[in-house]
Design brief:
It contains 10 helices and 6 strands, in the order E-H-E-H-E-H-E-H-E-H-E-H-H-H-H-H. By secondary structure, the chain is of the alpha/beta class. It folds into 2 domains: 2-140, Rossmann fold; 143-202, Winged helix-like DNA-binding domain superfamily/Winged helix DNA-binding domain (Arc Repressor Mutant, subunit A). The chain has a 6-stranded parallel sheet with strand order 2-1-3-4-5-6, sandwiched between helices. It starts with a strand and ends with a helix. The model has no long low-confidence stretch (mean pLDDT 88).
Length: 206
């Protein structure tokens, strides 16, 4: 059962979403909040798997609420559910950690499907916003920003070679390899070589 929290300042919207989702056996609405502060406060008591997040609410914004929830409970899947299509708003939402961005005119069936897909780790995008998001992800994809030499070093790391051994393979100094390794760790947002290998394998970088 997928546990869902609805965060929206309009009671009618929350009730409508609950009605939509009540028809799906695999989804249960376990909590609802009228603003970001309430959502953050009650979150630990319900530990939802997916949060449907309105972006424009009084008090703490949906974007900031998303950021806080993702920092404290990083396994949560947050789908922005809004009436606004704005590139800056979309980019801030994705940067905050949301896995999806949907418009409130979405059908109940598609919303339920998006929740299921989000639980699988798949992005859920409305047709009106997908172009903005895909462009943003392409521009900000750290994996695509690895240089040719960094990809070479990463492939050697994956085979278990030390910096000195990699330096010998590339005919460069160990300090140069160390510099490349540091860049790779930063770009992949990992702490060590083991994590770098895991990300490389997951993202098919090798």
């Amino acid at each position: 059962m997928i546990r869902v929290m609805i965060v929206d300042d309009h009671p009618v919207v929350r009730e409508g979403i609950k009605t939509y989702l009540s028809n799906h056996d695999s989804i249960e609405v376990v909590a609802e909040a009228q603003d970001g502060d309430t959502a953050i406060e009650i979150f630990p008591g319900f530990m939802p798997d997916v949060v449907l997040m309105d972006l424009m609410m009084p008090g703490t914004s949906g974007i900031y609420t998303t950021e806080i929830i993702m920092n404290r409970w990083p396994r949560t899947k947050i789908i922005a559910l809004t009436s606004f299509v704005d590139r800056q708003l979309i980019e801030k939402t994705i940067k905050a950690g949301a896995i999806g961005y949907l418009l409130k005119n979405i059908s109940g069936e598609k919303l339920a499907s998006a929740i299921v897909e989000a639980m699988k780790g798949k992005a859920t995008l409305s047709s009106e916003t997908s172009g903005y998001i895909l462009t943003f992800l392409k521009e900000n994809n750290p994996y695509g920003k690895l240089t040719k030499r960094e990809k070479e070093v990463l492939s050697f790391i994956a085979t278990g070679l030390s910096n000195d051994e990699i330096a010998g393979k590339l005919v460069v100094s160990p300090n140069t390899v160390k510099f490349h390794v540091g860049n790779i760790l930063n770009k992949l947002n990992v702490r060590n070589r083991t994590e770098a290998i895991a990300v490389a394998q997951k993202e098919n970088l090798l």
